[in-house]
Amino acid sequence: MSWIExxxxxxxxxxSQRHREAHYRCIADGIVANLGDGNPVVLDYGCGEALxxxxxxxxxxxxxxxxxxxxxxxxxxxxFASEPRIVVIAPDELASLPGGxxxxxxxxxxxxxxxxxxxxxxxxxxxxxxxxxxxxxLADIIPPSVGPLTDAVALLSFAWREGFTLAAAAxxxxxxxxxxxxxxxxxxxxxxxxxxxxxxxxxxxxxxxRHHPNLGHNQARMAFIAVHAAS
Length: 231
Fold this sequence. Notes:
The protein is α/β, with parallel strands linked by helices. It has a single domain, classed as Rossmann fold (3-Layer(aba) Sandwich), CATH 3.40.50.150. It is built from nine helices and seven strands. A seven-stranded mixed beta sheet has the order 3-2-1-4-5-7-6, with helices on both faces. Helix 6 (148-162) runs antiparallel to helix 7. The radius of gyration is 17 Å and the shape is globular. 36% of the residues are buried.
């Protein structure tokens, strides 16, 4: 099984519907906070279910929701059929978008699932899409020092704030026997030091810096803002 196949087949990573909804609302709030002025064109790469994408779209001229999982795209098309500012696309459709036509690219909780060569290709694709003064936001990148225990503590804290503590506790127990744990053990997750991410972005033609806060609830993970490097 690949990670794309996992996300295409009703993943069990969320402990409850309330967790799922709170997660995507938290991500949407974080994207809105990074939109800047005007009515930007935004690409949310690896968007997942994007349950609260309408909150982002209200602040955008256009919001591209891009995901590699066919079933996820099908659900997105149904969910946002009445929202003209939202366009659902597959990764291979990015090539049809004009260069310099996007103001903000968001890749949240994506880098950990990409082999290094695929990540380098993505960085080049995103750089082509961004105009010289636009930004790339890479978020939820896992440092080597962050493991399952840190993630569990962050989830329980989030659950306490959002009102699904019992479901979170039960979900953490179920995770020990879940397909997510099995797939993670088989495929692994890419983890990076901050300096490595900055170097990868520099090699792809970006100037980058660490960005706070991270998108989402887990502040032990990292986010970065990147722009076209000065020529």
